[in-house]
Write the structure tokens for this entry.
Amino acid sequence: MNKNMIIMGLVIFVLAVLSPFWFNMITTTEAAPKPELLGKAKEEKKCVLEKYDMRANHPSLLDEWRDSVVRDSNRQYTAANGHAYGMSLSTGENSCLGCHEDKAKFCDSCHTYASVDPYCWECHTNPKEIK
Amino acid sequence: MMKKSRRSFLKVAGIAAIGLGASPAMNFASSDSDGTALAVKGKNEQALTAHRWGMVIDTNKITEEIAEKITEICHKTHNVPDFKHEVDAEKYPKTRSVNHKQEIKWIWKEEFHYAFPEKEDEYLTEKFHDLPFLVTCNHCKNAPCVQACPTQATFKREDGIVIMDFHRCIGCRFCMAACPYGSRSFNFRDPRPFIAETIPDFPTRSKGVVEKCNLCAEQLAKGELPHCAQVSEGAIVVGDLEDPESDIRALLKEHFTIRRNESLGTEPSVYYIV
């Protein structure tokens, strides 16, 4: 009798602990949106870092860039693939937005999905949004 | 079945522990060999460089018109808000009007006795009473604002420019108290509604950040002179103070110049020909 109670209790406990997984199995979740490559970025097919590196490390890359530009006044980044890029979010042809034309489809779609809210655009401006 | 001795169990456990530790160690070692490690950061080829940037302002050549033109181009290109600007109510609803004392300025006209309080004189040359004196950040050699900043948001670049890292500014305003020239302004409000025309080449600021003249660091990086020097019709010359062959040193050799509040020992890099 005592033994059965313990096993019952354990089963209930395991079910309860794994409840997020059960919940996920019965509800459907949207797949993470993929950043859309348009225009120049689509033709280029070559970014500052490898695709997977970029996906994982772009925040730290941007952090490195900002320190380099502001504090060391170095504004040009010659990447491992030999291309030179302007270390800037939005100024010039060679900046992030210079190549990735559509901020909403490139930055915002993923950020919104992952509910991260970087404050870059409180100060930096998307040239296309200025009328 | 063979009975395991304590000794053989410990051996296996030890090898297993090494195996478990190996993967994070390998990952750590390999993370250095990714793309960022091979990249090279450098200056643009056309960038202007100096050992110590300085500015000479020829007060004889500055008229009201030129002074206004200079302030206008500087404030426009750096997205400096003008709180007299009428806010677009559609784009920015709920924006209240601003107390005029909250003005933000990078370069502006000042009267002689405010710009040079040490040189106050009962019998001052008359023309000085109505000449417009343009004042801005002096990019001091011993900048008090740099010493006061607790986060190193304000710092001195190798080329002598005292510049701000807006990302790091926490808005404590110690620098504003430290600066004897009043060269710094604080964003009490989000400046964006008060910018008539936003220039995409330079960021705006956000609420809670101090700002001031950056000697057009973004222009120098492109190989162009600061905007004020470009539109000044020769009244403002920017150059390398430590290069004896530079234009600016030739001017200093030739003319008598004064600097603001020299007795404070801040060693301003902005000289005035009077």
